Amino acid sequence: MPRNTSRFVAAGLASLSLLAVPAAADAAPTKGLQDNAILSDDADLRASFFKDAKASKARTVRVLVNWDEKTTQAPADQIARIRRAAEEGRAARVKLLVGSYVTMGRGKRAGAKVSSSLQSKYVLFMGDVATQLKDLSLAGYLTFNEPNYKTAWPTRQERAWVKLSNRVYKQIKKNDRGAKVLVGEAAPNTRSGDASTNPGAFFRKALYLDSSFRPTSRSKAARTKLLGDGFTLHTYDFSRSPTKATSATDQWTHGNLRTTVRQIKALARAGRLSSTAARNIHITEFAYRTEGRFKTPTSRAASYLKSAFSLAKRNGIKTFIWYQLRDPKGRSDWKSGLKTSDGTSRRTWTIFRRLK
Fold this sequence. Notes:
The protein has helices at 5-14, 43-55, 76-91, 116-133, 158-175, 199-206, 257-269, 275-279, 298-314, 347-354, and strands at residues 30-34, 60-66, 95-101, 140-142, 181-186, 230-234, 281-286, 319-323. The model is unreliable at 1-24 (pLDDT under 50). It is 35% helix and 12% strand. It has an 8-stranded parallel β-barrel with strand order 1-2-3-4-5-6-7-8.
């Protein structure tokens, strides 16, 4: 989306501290990776990952902490592996972006409430993660993964999720005062029938706004703001080119990136999101499948990746994270590696390394 250079530079200067974002109008997104290899106890596998991260000039590595819905403290083994990854990543000049994987909505009907005790446990859990990692130099934290998908959070409970996300934001800030905390991370569109809600509609309803971003209520609750230092997206689309928009602009797929950015800025203009967060938009999951019915042929995926990164750059996206460096070994319901499970490079890996 074309921008006035002087306006963008002013905005960029205000956000220099977030994930080392450059201020130039034509600055490329910071590249990032996500792969479970960094938490492996296989030292050679971890070393290979960080070598590749350095070679690709990736600067951010996203990692998720698993929560069992019982504890309020982060498991020692998970924290130890994350700390190890952060230390090993320093040599590769990467920083970790730490989020969580939760299934609070699994098995619940649409509109079901998540108990206050369960929510409080999650808030304390994420706060404990921040306490145990606060001495590390991190890229930041994420409050919640894909809240518009029914296994993570029950559908039709959008407003309750905002309250939870805000509590997590405050708890992380309380326990790690200098931390950057990012929000959003919605699934890009509806899938599996009624399993998810398009993110545009999800965030408007969550924040009491109609389709024109006007308030739907004058109550105090309706003035709630979604707290965050940046906003995050998952922009997967396995059915079309990453530059091809859909008519349904509430789908926040990659082809709809221009209208997605406009909607996020509209949330800020409506007073439901900070202007800082709306200026600092990050894609924290993007990839093309390498197996299964959603597979994209490698040559096409390589071409699509190049186009997707260019579109992200034109729309001022700050971080662009590819999901999976290597395919998982054996059977998996999700494979999207830039390399095969044995480390053989695909054309997408060559393109990813060259992106700038």
